[in-house]
Structures are given as C-alpha cells and as structure tokens.
Amino acid sequence: MTAIDKYFTLEEAASLLPWVRKTLAQANTELLTLYDEMVLAKRLYALKYADRLPGQDEQQQALELKIQRFEQTIERWVAFFKEKGLIVRNLQKGIIDFPYRTKDKDLLFLAWRKGDDGILYFYEANESSRGRRPITLLPD
C-alpha cells in the first residue's frame, strides 16, 4: 500500500488538474526522448551482436546507462508528483490518483486519466482503478 501524505477534497483535486496536465506533458516529453534513445541503442546493440553472445563492451554499457537513466527519470517524475500528495499509477499512460477521505474516514481515490475532462471517477482503496465509478456516486 502506498503511503498517503495528503488527502484532497474534490475541489482541491479539480484545481490541481491544470498543473497535473502540464507536468504530465513535460514528463512524457522527456521520457519519450529517453525512450527513443534507449530503443535506438538496443537496436544498434542487437545488430552488433546478432550472431554471437553479448559481451561486456562499451556499447552494452551505454545501453545499460540509457535504461538506467530512463528508469531514474520515471522515479524522479513520480517523486515530483508525490511531493504534491498525488499517486502516479502509470506515468506514461497518465493515470493519477488523488487520495480522498470520506466523513467516515474511508480511503478512496479520486481517479484521473489523461484525456478525462476533469475529476469524474473514484474507486475504493481495496479495488483496482478498473473499477472506477462516477463521482456522482461518491459517498460523503
């Protein structure tokens, strides 16, 4: 279970959406560039070693560094969202959760996905985001 640092009201979550959209776009632009570099390095490495077992050489090390940089960049962006109290379920697909507490102290997640017009869905903490329900059913 992810540690919850902040709980949002529906209004707070909605007001943060412009920042989420902008920041997500920046993150995905950076990740796409790194991903393209990683794929190119993988293809070049595969061509070089198509007929033999891979060895520890400069090209393999360069590929490993690109993969590591990609993973570290994802971690950095996820941490950046976490500083605001958000939970990133999938950075590249743009799946972001806003922790929410009901009056009875039940934990829910206000669920937003890239392409959603606003905070339109929620799901319970013991469910997956695939069980999103409309916020019109959100308990008090």
Per-chain topology:
Blueprint lengths: L9 H39 L9 H26 L3 E4 L4 E7 L5 E7 L7 E4 L8 E2 L6
Antiparallel strand pairs: 1-2, 2-3, 3-4, 4-5
Helix pairs in contact: 1-2
Global shape:
elongated
Q: What portion of the residues fall into strands of 2 or more residues?
A: 15-25%
Lateral arrangement of strands in the main beta sheet: 1-2-3-4-5
In terms of structural class, how would the helical and strand content be classed? alpha+beta
* Integer count of domains: 1
Low-confidence stretches: none
Number of strands: 5
- Percentage of residues in helical conformation: 40-55%
Give the termini distance in whole angstroms.
23 Å
Tally of contiguous helical segments: 2
H/E element order: HHEEEEE
The average pLDDT is: 87
C-alpha Rg, in Å?
19 Å
Major sheet: size, sense and barrel closure?
5 strands, antiparallel
What does this structure look like?
By secondary structure, the chain is α+β, with helices and mostly antiparallel strands. The chain contains two helices and five strands. A five-stranded antiparallel sheet has the order 1-2-3-4-5. Strand 1 (87-90) and strand 2 (95-101) form a beta hairpin. Helix 1 (10-48) runs antiparallel to helix 2 (58-83).
Keywords:
46% helix, five-stranded antiparallel sheet, alpha+beta, 2 helices, 17% strand
Brief synopsis:
The chain is of the alpha+beta class. It contains 2 helices and 5 strands.
